[in-house]
Amino acid sequence: MPPRKRTLTIPESEFQALVQEALDGLPDEYAKLITNVAVVVEEEPSPEVRADLEMEEGEDLLGLYQGLSLDKESFFQAGGQLPARISIYRGPILRLCRTRKEVVQEVRDTVVHEIGHHFGFDDDEMPY
Prior knowledge:
The protein is an alpha+beta fold.
């Protein structure tokens, strides 16, 4: 099954600005702890990501945290670890939402959710 057709259009630059607004809206104590986390906007999850997550055809992924969460980091870890990365997927979010207001809320929720993984929260422990 091909991905659902997008009905809502928000230019990539505007979508990236929404992600930045979500990051700028974080309380200072959390914002300081994600300075070494790369946050990127991608159109869709790659086939490799979909395969790694064993996603079904037609299943959407809104965001992904890749890296070692703060509760797992250690001074004694071997070097060479890639920095943490959060991907926010524009296509799935735009397919999910019907209005710009919904997009703004979903981007915020997805950014907060993925940052929660950076702090070591599982999906069922997210603070919202």
